[in-house]
Amino acid sequence: xxxxxxxxxxxxxxxxxxxxxxxxxxxxxxxxxxxxxxxxxxxxxxxxxxxxxxxxxxxxxxxxxxxxxxxxxxxxxxxxxxxxxxxxxxxxxxxxxxxxxxxxxxxxxxxxxxxxxxxxxxxxxxxxxxxxxxxxxxxxxxxxxxxxxxxxxxxxxxxxxxxxxxxxxxxxxxxxxxxxxxxxxxxxxxxxxxxxxxxxxxxxxxxxxxxxxxxxxxxxxxxxxxxxxxxxxxxxxxxxxxxxxxxxxxxxxxxxxxxxxxxxxxxxxxxxxxxxxxxxx
Length: 281
Fold this sequence. Notes:
Elements: E1 5-8, H1 30-38, E2 42-46, H2 60-73, E3 76-81, H3 83-87, H4 95-114, E4 119-124, H5 133-145, H6 147-153, E5 156-161, H7 165-172, E6 180-185, H8 186-192, H9 196-203, E7 207-212, E8 214-215, E9 221-222, H10 231-240, E10 246-249, H11 259-277
Parallel strand pairs: 1-2, 1-10, 2-3, 3-4, 4-5, 5-6, 6-7, 7-10
Antiparallel strand pairs: 8-9
Helix pairs in contact: 7-9
């Protein structure tokens, strides 16, 4: 059996300020029991920059509560999406702000390790996109400085990028694949119009985590199978690369607020794709 199917934290809570994704500060603990009822056993934590040190991940006194919830509901947290780094990228900042943002990054890494989170997704998209060679060099230089810390804490940094397949392949090959990898977002690639064959040819063996969602070409997130994502091809390619990582549902939100029902539907769809195109390889 290949990797488990999990969900992005917040998908079992109501929208916050009409955002498709945000840390559910008032209901985060409730999502554990809801997830268990639906049969999930993994979730991906999410971090926003706003009030970041009020997030329970970064409050040591909250760690025991998180561990208790994980144990009680048999929910693991193998990965974290750092939207905070996209909202305030240290590779675009200078001076004191740069120091503060790097400190936040290190604090997130350390707290993640304490809770058994091994993958940190670093979004190089939208406001976090690398717009110049200078920004790319700033990012690489700092991450290289942190390599020993990542190794010691058993942390792997996964880049999520909208670079074209050739450029992303060139970029990721600058890094040690034991410490760095790729978070493959099915919907984002579809929205960019990229050919999955080219993507996997360039960096398929660097993919360690998959975000399952659908988007229309140059458009926003839509329900699974209603966009331009070629799920059959993507899951077939994952099978060819013997992918064993997790699948995180970062799917469209339910307009009528029935979050459990729609997430359960997407869970079954994803499990079937895994069964049909990966497990049968």
